[in-house]
Amino acid sequence: MKPAPKAASRPRTGARVAAVQALFQTEQSGDNIETVLDQFVRHRLGAAPGQQGFEDGRVEEADVALFARIMRGAATHTEDLDQLIAAHLAAGWAMGRLDPVLRAILRAAGGELRDMGGPPARVVIKEYMDVAHGFFGGEEPRFCNGVLDALARALRAEEF
């Protein structure tokens, strides 16, 4: 796994990167979603003197409302999302076998795809592919693309 992306030039992309980081932290720490959401809003979102953004775990530009919506959507529907994601994994693969960052990307994207008032599915997929490429340099983005496409078709069939 390579380091997180270098910079966010778009607030909505920044919100998605932050959501992936926060979902990862939630899973690793066991803290509830509201605690992690509060920590991110207070300490990890927005510019800070002497910090260079993603390298320091900060997301300088992030749409905080979108970040919170993604986090709450993914947390509210984790079981359903995990079942949907698992249904689109190769035979013999379980959610626990996925890299935790990849799992966070799929959950964040799945949560956003469940939000029918959000951007078109193809936009969501493209955005999370950018995020995946920021975190991974191997085959993970390609794998992520296949699962996200299947999720989008399951959650928003009318768009395809």
Notes on the structure:
With 160 residues, this protein is mainly α. Helices cover 62% and strands 0% of the residues. It contains 7 helices and no strands. It has helices at 11-29, 33-43, 64-76, 78-87, 100-114, 121-135, 140-155. The longest helix has 19 residues, at 11-29.
Question: Summarize this, please?
Answer:
With 160 residues, this protein is mostly helical. The protein has helices at 11-29, 33-43, 64-76, 78-87, 100-114, 121-135, 140-155. The protein is globular, with a radius of gyration of 15 Å.
Summary tags:
mainly alpha; 160 residues
Element layout with pairings:
Layout: H1 11-29, H2 33-43, H3 64-76, H4 78-87, H5 100-114, H6 121-135, H7 140-155
SS-based class:
mainly alpha
Helix segment tally: 7
CATH topology: N-utilizing Substance Protein B Homolog, Chain A
Q: State mean pLDDT (0 to 100 scale).
A: 86
Radius of gyration: 15 Å
Number of domains: 1
- Please identify which CATH superfamily we are dealing with: NusB-like
Q: Could you give the order of the helices and strands?
A: HHHHHHH
Into which percentage range does the β-strand content fall?
under 5%
